[in-house]
Amino acid sequence: MVHALELIWKMLKRNGVLIETHPSGAKPSIGVRSGEKILPCGILEETDDFIEYFQAEEALANVASRGWFRLERRDDFHFIVLADTPDEFVKFLNENYSDAILKPEVYEKLVTRIEVEEHGGQVEMDELGRISRYMRGEEALG
Amino acid sequence: MTVQLDPEQVEINLLKDYMGSLVDKRILEIGCGNGRLTWTYAGQAFQVVGIDPKAEAITDAIENLPKSMQGKVDFEACTLEEYANQHYEAMRHKKFDLAFLSWSL
Question: FRET pair for A111, CA 20 to 30 Å: which of A26, A63, A73, B68?
């Protein structure tokens, strides 16, 4: 990860900017969205406990401490995924979240809650993302 | 559409705010996938290069490239390291104003 940031440093102009987004590391919540309400059904687990996101934080802190990049701004935001059915949600996870574990009890809750909602519902995953803006530093690499 | 990402466009709006003015800017988007975010800002930029190691996603991005952005946006299926190696000489004289590392560190 530090190597990738080193490459980016080399590719940027002197006053270049790096914008980086990654998951915060908090486990995404999963529920059913029906109209204005959200019915919680559980959380999404990952096989590696989201360790890579904490490693990303460490890499960014590392290059900032070396003066390669200077943090200007950072925010957390809710990244929402909506799927029309639990099966479509599972397909989406399989294609895009290779480490994800959707526990059977969470899946069952999604199916049941969508069935009992008078006006139906959609599966909602709420993942906390983090966005940061860095200014390229003038410190030489090394 | 059966799966929607960021339906309220929270990420997109925040990203645009973070990017600021893109007039005359050269942008490198790392982890561009199928161009989901690229389309939202590329129109304002001078030039955009989007890279992603997933060849299938890059094929989708190229196929869905709006005509108005042809010649302005380039996509390549490669890793950051591969891109840096392939364009080493060119980048000594043609660096980027902004790099966007999208969910891929």
Answer: A26
